[in-house]
Every structure is written in structure tokens, then in C-alpha cells.
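Data deposition worksheet. Section B asks for the primary sequence of the deposited chain exactly as it was used as input, without tags or linkers unless they were present during the calculation. Section C holds the resulting structure in C-alpha cell form. Section D is free text for depositor observations; keep each observation to a single sentence. Incomplete worksheets are returned to the depositor.
Section A, Depositor: J.P.
Section B:
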Amino acid sequence: MRKRILLTRGIGNERDKQALQNMGIDTVSESFSQIIAGRESDARELLALAEKIAAWIVITSINAIDFWGELVGVCELRRVLDSNSQLNFAAVGESSAAALRAYGQTNIKIPVTSSAEGLLDLLLKEPSSSALIPSSNIARKVIPRGLQDAGWNVETRVVYKNEPVTTAPSSIKGLERDEFDGILLRSPSAVRALISFLPKPNTAIFCGGITTAYEAIELGLTVTGVTDDPTPEGIAKMISEKLKG
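Section C:
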């Protein structure tokens, strides 16, 4: 019998679904959170800074760059990123770096370990500077606080909001009936959304990153598998190996 994994992201489940299907694993997608754009004025404030100062553009998620572009205009964001030669770029992982490359950037620093802590360590090896961080309303403060403590000037603006859905997803009943072989959680917010509807899941918990695993463990969940390669292919490989084991 083919295995079945529940995907819970508000947006962006398609690549995970395809990677898992390539491993012979079926999926069901249902949003446990809703992701909406932040305020255009905040996004434009960050854009204005990116146009005129020497700074690091720090990208901690695909949504951060995608919603920034949506709010200010994709062409306008690309123009600014291209025009200011004093900008440097850092991304938390390969997927976030790929989102930056879509805006024409090729010189992007990526930490060995795809986590906020890994990205902070990478940046702290650079001379103190300014950091511009498009983020979510519930983003962890590890990077901005760490940089500020080291003497950096940090400007953070909320470009998207991540909120739990207001009605329990129908798949919660399936989780209670053990109809899934596992659930994929890709962010700390996904962990919190899950336990808001099902505090003690019996299903195997797979985490797409160390930061997510830390959150799950801290909130009392048992993590079956975690990978430091949060690409769809890396996650699919980890889940496949764990299910076979």
C-alpha cells in the first residue's frame, strides 16, 4: 500500500507534492494557515532603503522575497536590487536563494546549515553593516537581535502575515483516525497551527528544517524525521528513508 503524507502549507505545497510523488509517496494538501500580503507602505519603506544605502538583503523564506515583490512590483524590486552596487545578499537556504536568483542576483551567501542560527553565524563573520529584512509577522527574532547585538543597523518590515485558519481543517479527523503515515511541517508556525487543532497527534512528524524541529520538540511533539536540506527533494528523500525504515 502506498504511503500518504499530509502537507499543511498555506501556499507552495506543489513542489513538495511532486518530489514525494517521485519517491512513490502520495500526498494530501490542506492549508493549516493562511498567508496574506502585509502593508504596501512597509514594503516600500524597505525598498527605499535598499535603493540608497549599503546593506545586506537578508532573505529567510521564499515568501519574504515573493511578497516583497508583489507589494512593490516585481520589476521595480528587480530594478532596485540591480541598481545599487552596495547591496550584498544572504539567504537562509537554497530555496530562498533560488527565489533571489529569480530577481537577477547570483552572488548570494548561504549557510551550511539552513537555519536562522546558521544564517546569523554566517553574517556575523562579515564586517558590521546594515541589514534589510523582509519578514512575516511571526518571524523569529534570532537574526535581527543577533545582528543588533553585534552593532549592525537592522531594518525589518513585515511583508506578509501568517495566521492559522479559523476553522479546523477536515484532515484533522483523518489524523485522529490514523489515516496518514505522516505530516510534513515546514515552519514553526506550521507546528503551532497543528497543535492548535490537535495538541497530541499520533502521526509521524516530519520537519523541513532544524528550526521547525526545535519548535516541535519544545511544544511537546515527537519528531520522526528532520533534514537540514529543506528543498522539496531533500525533504522527500528524508521522508522516504524514514518510512522505509
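Section D:
The radius of gyration is 18 Å.
The first helix runs from residue 14 to 22.
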